[in-house]
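User: structure tokens for Deferrochelatase, please.
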Amino acid sequence: MSERISRRKLFGLGAAGVAAAGAGVVALRAGEGGQGPTAARVASATDAVPFYGEHQAGIVTPAQDRLHFVAFDVITDKKAELDELMQEWTAAAARMTQGREAGTFGAVGGLPEAPPDDTGEALGLPASGLTLTVGFGASLFDDRFGLAARRPAAMAPLPKFPGDALLPEISGGDICVQACAHDPQVAVHAVRNLARIGFGRVSVRWSQLGFGRTSSTSRAQATPRNLMGFKDGTNNLKLEDEALLAEQLWVAPGDGQDWMTGGSYLVTRKIRMMVETWDRAPLDEQQQIFGRDKGEGAPLGRKAEFDPVDFNARDAAGQPFIKADAHVRLAHPSSNGNAHLLRRGYNYVDGSDGLGRLDAGLFFMAYQRDPHRQFVPIQLSLARHDALNEYIKHVSSGLFACPGGVRDAGDYWGRTLLT
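Assistant: Done. Predicted tokens:
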């Protein structure tokens, strides 16, 4: 083991304990603890989110404004090195989420002749609500690390959906990290430092920057808008929905692999929007496609955003206000066996495609207890019938098993899987 690794391992885990104490103070002052359904809310854009808890932060945590998502491929074939990496990552994450530098010696406190323990671009910045959430892709459960028998049944491949135009180079991955924060520099700093720590053991497969959250995960948040101009995620699962979260979000004992208890399954989809074509569509057509009013966000035939959707309501001509191919009808739990998702999507703009068209859309992320009982039937219905399909294209896909939270400074991401 190199001196660099041993030094980080020696001091990093101890520093994580200090971060844990700080996180505990935050939670206790809020009168709550951990990352459960009633986890302490982020009071402002500068606050730190507790790192330790029953569930990973960044799932029911009130959605922050910025995202840096990355998928890694593991390039070592030694399980001990993978296990050690997860310990080092956890120690760094515990520090960074509390507004501290990634390593014990920081950006400027180490030996001048050695690389710094932190890249330094977040020096002087607050925690900014940073959360780091880790998941494991199906490809990690091959024969490299002896994990095949520990692959959850829920990690069976997603089917090919009608209309998919997936690019393999921006899909899948062995490990994902979701960094959410109110400051984009804080999120980018976190991912950059995890990639730096992982050098020689992981490589970046693909990554995605996002802005302007497209869903709310708390009733304290206003509903945001997507790049088509519509409010998005009105009926999303919220952290206040404790009974629904237990039923629809968190993996329960007996669901399958014990190491996933308290965790959740993440589906990612990069959905490109043909915004130039959409922008030429009449307002009435846009509203019919979504099944909602563009201004208030109310279901067609109703007045307010949160009015219950009435699929039986008809206009003066006797026609349904909400058509059979409207997005809201096809995605609604009542149309999908009461399947719910907790969405944490973000808008993205990745420049242009070289033909003068914006490469823009939605980076969709959804957490659930079982993707094959929740996401798959919903997406099959949408892919087959949604009028919105004329204006969108799915170009990447990912499925990741996100285990339960890190309990304390002696725990680390993936411990119950790798040991």
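User: Anything notable?

Assistant: Confidence is low (pLDDT under 50) at residues 1-42.
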